[in-house]
Specification:
Layout: E1 5-10, H1 14-18, E2 27-29, E3 37-39, E4 45-47, E5 51-56, E6 65-66, E7 69-73, H2 96-106, H3 109-112, E8 125-130, H4 136-149, E9 156-161, H5 177-180, H6 189-194, H7 202-212, H8 224-240, E10 245-252, H9 255-258, E11 267-272, E12 281-285, H10 290-305, H11 311-314, H12 316-325, H13 330-342, H14 348-356, H15 361-364, E13 366-367, E14 370-371, H16 372-380, H17 385-393, E15 402-403, H18 404-411, H19 415-427, E16 432-433, E17 439-441, H20 444-456, H21 458-461, H22 463-486, H23 489-492, H24 497-514, H25 518-541, H26 545-562, H27 565-579, H28 584-600, H29 604-617, H30 621-638, H31 641-658, H32 661-677, H33 681-700, H34 706-723, H35 730-746, H36 749-766, H37 768-789, H38 792-805, H39 808-825, H40 828-839, H41 857-871
Helix pairs in contact: 2-4, 7-8, 10-12, 10-13, 12-14, 17-19, 17-20, 18-19, 18-22, 22-24, 22-25, 22-26, 25-26, 25-27, 26-27, 26-28, 27-28, 28-29, 28-30, 29-30, 30-31, 30-32, 31-32, 32-33, 32-34, 33-34, 34-35, 34-36, 35-36, 35-41, 36-37, 36-38, 37-38, 38-39, 39-40
């Protein structure tokens, strides 16, 4: 018996074929759409004869050929080609979700609704994309084998390697002689594209597939379109006979290579390094998670050597390091496993140490005919010249990722062109999208490969010029962005009032050209922060001391604003190293920057040493003023209160003599804080009130500093809370809420957390019976926010405040946690304070009957809601009532 047959005939032969229809049994015809016309070699449009494929299910003793109609009998059994998909590996792991997605697409029940909800409009094909070596082929094979085992494709699995990335000459590197002749010679893109042989041609592949399906080679039509229609018809024939076939198209490089091969109604799995537009469900395959990479290493070793190999279990840390150095790339992990299997005595730690050297890592990741470098090379060879140039020049940008803006700078192209090139590299899976939209990054191993190519083409690409462009860009943008955070403080502390106004006008004009607002500047700094830190180090590595120093100093206001201590210290140390040959002004700025960074890190002795050095480098009062201010802040944190007061008094005198109103106000804020620490509360309140008044006056003139005014309000509130711990007047809550409004507008989350903590204390002091819930709520918010910010010290302080506001059980937990943190930080004074509070016999907060505030319910509700209203943006609530002043003395 023979199976179903496939008939292909031309429209011109239909009348001849009609005479033979009576000899056929159960013939069913269905037309297949064809392109209606084509263009001849002479440019004329010609009608293309339609091709009709007919399937019949009758019985035939032999092939029938009549007229121009060809009847092909299909084989009754599954041929070896249909069951000859490459084997799957037993070491497969870490892709459960992706495998489930593919199986869901292949499940025939999803098409018919049998056993589950039908999805008739879902794609018939899936495209698995990813970086070379990501495991695309293995995932497709795993899905194909499982689908066959479940009986979904009794006709078999038809697998073909399209060789889309094989044997392609490289047209994307610039000839080395271009630089020698002083010209920017680049290959012609059209000629390069014409010279590319992108793997197997669709017509050839269709011929092979049709022969694999059992068709007589002599009956296979010559044209690609005719072969495509016949192939689809044959697959339909198998499906109609209850023997659907799964098509696996591996290693495709272009949509043109795939489209003629796709079945009309059948299922197909496609793998490619490029994202192709073929109407398929996209599945972008990422890297393995660290744990899955370790498991892959263990399984591959067990598969090769059996259960006797226990190196992964014996050396888990080394196994984790290997997985990290392979950056989750399955190919790299498998190569390491092969190397380890070839040398069973080799410890994993020795393997990890061999991989640690970045310069030779790609050399290590090679075994026999497999190599990570070779896998990347195939993708690189498919790039156009401009795409390859962008790929290489991306390595000029330091840091873990880069923006379109940065890419445009290094490539010396416009933002639109840069975005287009990055998207092309992303489609080729040579770059990945970063953590935020508009940012791009390279896989660690891909970057190593890109750096190799960049070194090879450094001359033609003018790589050093790209580095210079980027550093100039970073310095200019960081200076402009930092101005929104540091001005008017920085300039106001160095210039007389008249010169300051002129300078501020010039600076404000410059920064408006760069950034339209403070918010825009901070957003840019947040996005580019890690790149800027890496740029400081990169400039130092190139011997570019001036740029390294300038960028580090200009970033200081941002690091202080965002409390990014580690990065601040890193860049400040680079500034100190660079300043040695740049003169005493550079040395002073670097020493003060590092001293301030150490203070933020609570390394007070080192901070004081750097700031004293800066003071010795200052040659006039204008330079001494900011150093005295910062040195006084460090002395205050050290507990050297008399020295702190002396520094701030001296600073205030210098500012007063120079007519520096802003500097005088800032010095007053710091002096008031020092006086409060010395428990001279009436004097502190007087100085801080003067500072608030002066800053408000400057703000009315458009010369104010919201950050300084915010700190002045908080210090004034703290002074009153310390001087009158038994009662908190509305005036103090108002000052805290006004400061909270400024912190909200400035997006200063650290200041917000500090104010939350102080609100907790203020509400508790006002009346624990009436405002106990508010004290508890703000204490908890402070703890949470400090935890989000990663500030352990202030989190412990907030826990201490919470311990005073909470009930017995929560208080014990909060104080115990605070003590543990302070002990870890080595904060002796704070430890003693918490231990003393822990020994206090705490009871439940007073009941409402014990109210001491003597306030109406309306006032109580207004006071409780005031900070909430501020956070909602309802600043008008701050002006609802007339707030009287306070008197501590």
């Amino acid at each position: 018996m023979c199976g179903p047959r496939c008939t292909t005939r031309s429209a011109a032969a239909r009348s001849t074929a009609r005479s033979s229809r009576g000899t056929r049994s159960a013939v069913r015809s269905s037309p297949v759409p064809a392109r209606p016309c084509r263009t001849s070699a002479r440019g004329r449009t010609e009608r293309v004869a339609a091709t009709r494929n007919t399937i019949s299910g009758g019985l035939f003793l032999s092939a029938v050929i009549q007229g121009h109609t060809v009847t092909v009998q299909l084989p009754p059994q599954v041929t070896p080609a249909l069951s000859g998909a490459p084997p799957r590996t037993e070491a497969f792991t870490g892709r459960d979700d992706e495998l489930s997605t593919l199986l869901g697409l292949l499940d025939p029940a999803r098409d018919t609704g049998a056993g589950t909800r039908a999805e008739p409009d879902r794609p018939r094909a899936a495209l698995v994309t990813g970086l070379g070596g990501a495991g695309k082929t293995e995932l497709a094979l795993q899905a194909a084998h499982l689908a066959r085992e479940r009986g979904w494709f009794p006709g078999g699995v038809l697998f073909t390697d399209l060789r889309g990335y094989a044997d392609l000459p490289c047209h994307c590197d610039v000839p080395s002689h271009a630089e020698q002749h002083g010209r920017d010679e680049r290959p012609n893109h059209d000629q390069a594209a014409q010279g590319r042989q992108r793997g197997a041609r669709p017509g050839e592949v269709l011929g092979e597939l049709l022969r694999a399906l059992g068709l007589d080679p002599e009956r296979v039509p010559p044209g690609t379109q005719d072969r495509s229609r016949l192939f689809a018809t044959v697959l339909d024939a198998y499906a109609e006979q209850g023997r659907p076939i799964l098509l696996v198209l591996d290693n495709a490089s272009s949509a043109e290579q795939v489209r003629p091969l796709l079945p009309g109604t059948g299922k197909a799995l496609i793998t490619s390094r490029h994202t192709l537009d073929v109407g398929a469900r996209l599945l972008d395959l990422g890297m393995l998670a660290p744990g899955a990479a370790v498991e892959l290493l263990a399984r591959a070793l067990r598969l090769a050597l059996g259960d006797a190999d226990t190196r992964v279990a014996r050396e888990p840390a080394a196994a984790a390091d290997i997985a990290g150095l392979c950056a989750g790339l399955p190919l790299a992990v498998r190569i390491v496993a092969a190397l380890l299997a070839a040398d069973p005595a080799r410890p994993l730690r020795a393997m990890a140490e061999d991989l640690e050297e970045a310069a030779t890592r790609l050399d290590e990741l090679s075994y026999e005919d497999r190599g990570v470098r070779a896998a990347f090379e195939l993708s690189y060879r498919h790039l156009e010249a401009e795409e390859a140039r962008m790929f290489r020049l991306m390595t000029a940008a330091p840091g873990p990722d880069l923006s379109v803006e940065t890419a445009a700078v290094v490539a010396d192209r416009g933002p639109r062109d840069a975005r287009r090139l990055l998207e092309a590299l992303h489609r080729a899976h040579l770059v990945e999208r970063g953590g935020a939209y508009g940012r791009w990054r390279m896989h660690d191993l891909v970057r190593l490969y890109a750096e190799e190519r960049a070194r090879d083409q450094a001359g033609p690409d003018r790589h050093e010029e790209a580095c210079d462009r980027l550093l100039d860009h970073c310095c200019a943008r960081a200076r402009a962005a930092g101005a929104w955070l540091s001005l008017p403080e920085a300039q106001a502390r160095r210039e007389t009032q008249a010169r300051q106004e002129a300078q501020l006008q010039r600076e404000s004009q410059a920064r408006r050209e760069e950034f339209a607002s403070r918010e825009e500047a901070v957003t840019w700094l947040d996005a580019e922060g890690r790149t800027l830190v890496a740029a400081v180090t990169a400039a130092a590595g190139r011997g570019d001391r001036a740029r390294s120093h300038a960028l580090a100093v200009d970033l200081a206001p941002y690091f202080e604003f965002r409390q990014r201590t580690g990065e601040w210290i890193t860049t400040a140390l680079a500034a100190v190293d660079a300043a040695g040959r740049l003169g005493h002004h550079a040395e002073l700025a670097a020493a003060m920057t590092l001293g301030n960074a150490y203070r933020l890190a609570r390394r007070y002795d080192e901070s004081a040493a750097q700031l004293r050095r800066a003071l010795s480098l200052a040659r006039d009062d204008r330079a001494r003023s900011p150093v005295l201010h910062n040195l006084g802040l460090t002395y205050l944190r050290m507990g050297a209160l008399a020295k702190a007061e002396a520094c701030h008094r001296r600073d205030r005198r210098i500012c007063a003599l120079a007519g520096d109103l802003r500097g005088r106000a800032q010095a007053a804020v710091a002096l008031g804080d020092a006086l409060r620490a010395r428990r001279r509360h009436p004097e502190a309140a007087k100085v801080l009130t003067e500072a608030v008044t002066l800053l408000q006056r400057l703000d009315g003139l458009g010369l104010g500093n919201r950050t300084a005014l915010m700190h002045a309000r908080v210090n004034l509130a703290l002074t009153y809370l310390a001087g009158r711990p038994d009662r908190t007047p509305t005036y103090i809550l108002w000052q805290l809420c006004a400061a909270l409004a400024a912190a909200r507008d400035l997006d200063d989350r650290h200041a917000q957390a500090l104010i939350f903590m102080n609100l907790s204390t203020a509400y508790r002091n006002r009346c624990a019976a009436c405002h106990g819930p508010s004290a508890l709520a703000w204490g908890r918010r402070a703890v949470t926010l400090f935890e989000e910010l990663g500030d352990s010290y202030h989190r412990a302080r907030a826990l201490t405040a919470l311990g005073l506001a909470a009930g017995p059980e929560e208080a014990r937990r909060s104080l115990a946690e605070a003590l543990s943190i302070f002990e870890d930080l080595g904060a002796g004074r704070e430890c003693r304070e918490v231990r003393a509070l822990s020994r206090t016999d705490r009871t439940e907060p007073p009941r409402r009957e014990a109210c001491t505030a003597d306030e109406s319910e309306q006032v109580r509700d207004w006071v409780d809601d005031l900070p909430h209203a501020v956070l909602r943006g309802d600043d008008e609530r701050l002006g609802d009532v007339l707030i009287p002043g306070c008197n501590i003395g």
